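Quick one:
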Amino acid sequence: MSEVLFRELYRIRHVEQEVARVYPTDKIKSPVHLSIGQEAVSVGVCQTLRADDIVFGTYRSHALFLAKGGNLRAMIAELYGKATGCTRGKGGSMHLIDVAAGVMGTSAVVGTTIPLAVGYAYALKMRGSGALVAAFFGDGAVDEGAFHESMNFAALKKLPVLFVCENNLYAIHSPQAARQAKSNLCERAASYGMHAEHVEYGDVFTIRDRTAAAVSAIRAGSGPRFIECMTYRWKEHVGPGDDFAAGYRTRAEAEPWYARDSLNLIGARLDPAVRARIEHEVQAEVRDAFEFAESSPFPGHEELLTDVYGVA
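Output:
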């Protein structure tokens, strides 16, 4: 299992490091919100999900897309604005979808995929499919009205949905303490009548094990569950750089998160030959995806008139 987790974590990390490297060249045609430092949440949760389970995410969802099995070539091509991208070059980094993998969409607008996830869970329950939905969102989204309406409806209807809060302590540049009088997100969720739990330090094994228990309970008919996973983004809110000079956070605050990085901790325990083999295989796959994006065509002019709706 350590090899599987390391591969997933390293794959996401290496993809995003390549995105950060290429981004200044302007070949990538959309803003990028990197998941570097937060990979353990998506990997830990998605390791417990079935192929027919569904996920909805945020604008910072490269990790979620890949952890759920989204097509890497299509993702990178989408960042390049190419016709072979997962939304044919029209959505960019913040709007990723891969229906075959169960990635039903990510959004640039905070909190907007939460009610979509709940609606999808309602449909799954009505069909009796046995599948569930995982709704990913940040700590900033819990102050949106849609979050509370969705939590209430999900609990009322006992829907098969797992609410996953990736709490990285900041909503863009605003620390949680400046936005919320009490950092009681689990208490808020519990007030709607659902089980809620808090996971410190972003450990991928703990996230996986806690999520596995929650998923089992949801499949058994418990109704929705809420899990708050503490994590930390290493890069700026949007873009590939560091932002400690901006003054809203310090490098000293980040240092403990660097030390607790699941990728490095797991990698250090692997046999060096095994680790080298995994890294080599992943690097080849990522190189292929970027070459595919580079060589793919841009959308033709006819795409301006497709998937556009209006009133006659």
